[in-house]
Amino acid sequence: MKLILLLFIICLGLSLNTAFATDTKRYSVETAFKLYSQHSYTESANAFDQILSSSTVNASLCYYAALANMQCHRTARSNQLFSYIVTNFPKSPEAVYAQKVLNSQTKDKQTVQANSQETELPEAVKNALPTEMRALLNTKEGKAAVLQAMKEQQNNLQTIKKAEAAGQSSPSAPSQTRANNGGAGKAQPFSAADIAKDGAGGIDQSRYPNCWFEASMSALAQLPRGQRLLADTIHYGPTGGYIVRFKNDGVEYKISEDDIASSGIHDKALWASILECAETQKFPNNAGANGSDNDQSRLEVGLGSITGCRAEVINPASCDIQELSAFIGSAVKSQNPIVAATYSPVQLAGMPALVVSNHAYTIIDLDPSKQMVTIRNPHGSRSRPFQLSNDPQHLQFEQFNDGVFKMSLSNVQKYFHSIARSFI
């Protein structure tokens, strides 16, 4: 009895200390958003939760609170908030995205359960695959394909397993020639045509806050010269895996299959995952993303790190519509990469939600007659959709799939603080 009482007192004391510590610091909505934009997710989550407990709840606050909790791995709390948005704000844009997150997590759980069977894939089969195909086994899509193949080839699979058990099948590694040239005499694992086949759609930013790089990669992936440049950046490693050589860098970034698997990077295209892995080595935790002297735009650094060329940056709000149209149109017409970055949540407060704040986007096209710009979110299929309710004819904004939308030049001036282009 004494022990139980002692434990109760200790727990009560901890609860009181926690409550006191929480009450000693009060957060404003602006502070919560600022902490989130600075990637201080734990404190941001605490701030949002405190605000939700003492303020009027709306879909936007709940949505960012859920994102902050998700980023600091408080999965139960983030799911609770996403579910709350879906139930209580069903017609809001936040509800659409919240439901996508919940659906994605359900699929992930099912995939994890299904992938527990992956160990049944014989070593002889794994080792016979080319390097790039073995790397695909670590992606969700690759694992799903493995399971499907195993279902369809059960008889053959059992034959291979019996042969291995009897020592009749030697699970040797693929030949060095195939590991180095893809089995087809290629000097590089990807051609410009391979990049063109996926285009910008091969890129889905997910885990890392590197939209400034992903948007630039998307910009190049949709352009002929950019596709050749991306293909020339990736090489086979001498003993397997890949080597990435960025323009004017002088450093070789070695990317192994384990690097891709452990990074948590899951772009749709393998070449995009390889390049993103290399980016996290070149800019660990975004170190250097503002230039060596911390005096550059991240858009400028993102484009320059891939193209090796200097970028030109403007502030849309400081231009008139004709100047802005000319700046964007020049890059689009000459098929050169151009990207843009949005304002912070505080600066966008009070405006209709049309973009993700503090985020980089790829500019795809310009219709000067309608003064509309086509833009892509590097989140791709994971992008949060938006809509402008008082614009039924889509003269100001129109949402499409894969994170693509159209926005008027006048709104670009309001939502984007900088645009960067590079001529390659």
Structure, explained:
By secondary structure, this protein is of the alpha+beta class. It has 20 helices and 10 strands. It has 4 domains: 25-112, Serine Threonine Protein Phosphatase 5, Tetratricopeptide repeat (Alpha Horseshoe); 121-174, no CATH class; 192-286, no CATH class; 311-422, Cathepsin B, Chain A. The protein is globular, with a radius of gyration of 25 Å.
Topology readout:
Elements: H1 2-23, H2 29-37, H3 41-54, H4 59-71, H5 75-88, H6 93-115, H7 123-128, H8 131-136, H9 140-152, H10 154-165, H11 176-181, H12 192-198, H13 211-221, H14 224-233, E1 234-236, E2 242-244, E3 253-255, H15 257-263, H16 270-282, H17 298-307, E4 311-314, H18 321-333, E5 338-342, H19 345-348, E6 360-367, E7 372-376, E8 397-399, E9 404-408, H20 409-415, E10 416-422
Short description:
This protein is α+β, with helices and mostly antiparallel strands. The chain is built from 20 helices and 10 strands.
Keyphrases for this structure?
alpha+beta; single chain; 7-stranded antiparallel β-sheet
- Give the CATH superfamily of the largest domain: Cysteine proteinases
CATH-assigned fold name of the largest domain: Cathepsin B, Chain A
What is the CATH architecture term of the largest domain? Alpha-Beta Complex
Broad CATH class of the largest domain: Alpha Beta
Number of helices: 20
Contiguous low-pLDDT stretches (5 residues minimum) are: 1-6, 8-24, 114-119, 168-185
Domains, number: 4
What separation lies between the terminal Cα atoms? Answer: 77 Å
How would you characterize the largest beta sheet? Answer: 7 strands, antiparallel
